[in-house]
Amino acid sequence: MKTATARSEKKRQVGTHRAGDARMMRAAGFAADEAARRSDLGRVEGIVLAGVHSWGNSALDRVACWPLVPVAGEPLLSHTIRWLGGADIKGVNICANSDTLHVSRVLGDGQKCGAVLEYYEDRMPRGPAGCIRDVIMDRVASTFVVLDASVFPRIELRELLEAHDRSHALLTVAAVHGGGDALSRRRLVPAGIYVCSRQIAEYIGRTGYQDVKERLVPHLHAKGVRVHTHVVGNEVLPRVRCAASYLTVNKYLVEQLVRLGQTGPEYLRQGQARIHTTACIESDVRLIGPVLIGPGCTVKRRAVVVGPTSLGTDSQVGESATISRSAVWSSCRIGAGAIVDDCVVADGAVIDDGVMQRNAVCVVMN
After folding, report:
1. Measured in whole angstroms, how far is the alpha carbon of residue 360 from the centre of its chain?
2. Residue 282, C-beta contacts closer than 8 angstroms, at least 6 positions apart
3. What is the pLDDT of residues 144-192, one digit of tens each?
4. Are 232 and 191 in contact (CB under 8 A)?
5. How far apart are CA 86 and CA 321, in angstroms?
6. Which residues, 6+ apart, have CB-to-CB distance to 281 below 8 Å?
7. I need a surface site. Which of 92, 195, 206, 346 has the fewest CB within 10 A?
8. Distance (Å, rounded) from C-alpha 32 to C-alpha 30?
9. Judging by beta carbons within 10 Å of its beta carbon (0-12, 13-18, 19+), is residue 242 exposed, middle or buried?
10. In angstroms, rounded to a whole number, what is the distance separating the alpha carbons of residues 348 and 345?
11. CA-CA distance, 366 to 360, in Å (whole number)?
12. Tens digits of residue pLDDT in 188-231
């Protein structure tokens, strides 16, 4: 059943959908509002596949909803939504399955990201292609940009959309050259980003698990339907699949935000560091390299923070502590004289005075 528990009676810009029940909603009197709202979203919409994902037996499995992990101070999905918005794609449909309620509570209607968000939750697992079909059948757009939420997109989206239009294909697969030796670099690797036309829904099963690479693409080839491959770069796009890859993406974005000056007016510049106006940094603290210090943080005397490092909201760094190349989330405490290097420090975690942590995931101990 398609539910509307997350929608307001007037705006209804945030919804949780159950696949296949669009007619019930319209029968309930929502059709006029939906049509007016959707006509504003344009002919291209986004579909973000953000279903259940494991961190590979990492401690992060116990504490993190992976589409919402903080990357340079914002949820991973927020960066994806803004990337879509850079190509004027305002309508974004998030398929998060069991994480739907949590994701919708954090991202809401998408207004902070400049988007209009819809949420889809399947009763039974539908797979990537199944999710694509379910969204298409409930929307009015003609073209959809689809991406795995674990991908950190760094490609020119407008160029990809233009390539799809020129190809007259139903599906365009963004690809990059593989890394490693010369032979691997000649091999094309899917980037986890697709552009598809509305008509592709005709080739996806209405029920059951439907994959893109294993089922949809071979089926399209068998039916003689054009599938276009568009090479978008020479480097494999980073994916947030484990603690190490998460740290890599976080470091990259902290460096980018500092270098490009994209932290916003609420952050003050101090060398290569960007410090929120509500943070308290004592005078003899050393900030080295790209460092992002969030709202309400406190960094005590003689502490050293070496970038690329991010400190989340209301975290505290004790006297003479050293933090380097790490992601410290919200409400954490780094004790006096502690050393934290190349670590993820999850929400509320405490590193006791004088303790050294290297290459670790630090979580709250129950």
Report:
1. 23
2. 299, 300, 301, 303
3. 999 999 888 888 999 999 999 999 999 999 998 766 555 555 678 888 8
4. yes
5. 39
6. 270, 275, 287, 293, 297, 299
7. 206
8. 6
9. middle
10. 8
11. 18
12. 888 889 999 999 999 999 989 999 988 999 999 999 999 999 99
Distance in angstroms (rounded) separating the CA atoms of residues 83 and 232 = 15
The domains of the chain, with CATH numbers, are 16-233 (3.90.550.10), 243-362 (2.160.10.10)
Report whether pLDDT(347) > 90. Answer: yes
pTM across the whole model: 0.84
Name the one residue in this structure whose structure tokens are 């589409």.
67
Residues 6 or more apart whose CB falls under 8 angstroms from that of 365 comprise none
Which residue, chain included where needed, has tokens 């000649």? Answer: 186
Whether the CB-CB separation of 345 and 325 falls below 8 Å is answered with no
Helix or strand run (H / E) with residue 178: none
Tokens of 94: 């998030």
Query: To 5 degrees, how large is the angle CA 331–CA 343–CA 256?
Result: 85
What are the structure tokens assigned to 79, written together? Answer: 């960066």
265's CB contacts (< 8 A; 6+ apart) are none
Q: Of 332, 336, 341, 339, nearest to 363 (Cα)?
A: 332
The answer to whether 311 touches 329, Cβ cutoff 8 Å, is no
Residues 244 and 252: beta-carbon distance below 8 Å: no
Residues in the chain: 366
Cβ-count burial 104-122 (b if 16+ within 10 Å, e if not) = beebebbeebebbbbbbbb
φ and ψ at residue 230, rounded to 5 degrees: -120, 120
Give tens-digit pLDDT for 21-61.
Answer: 443 333 344 444 444 444 444 599 999 999 755 556 667 77
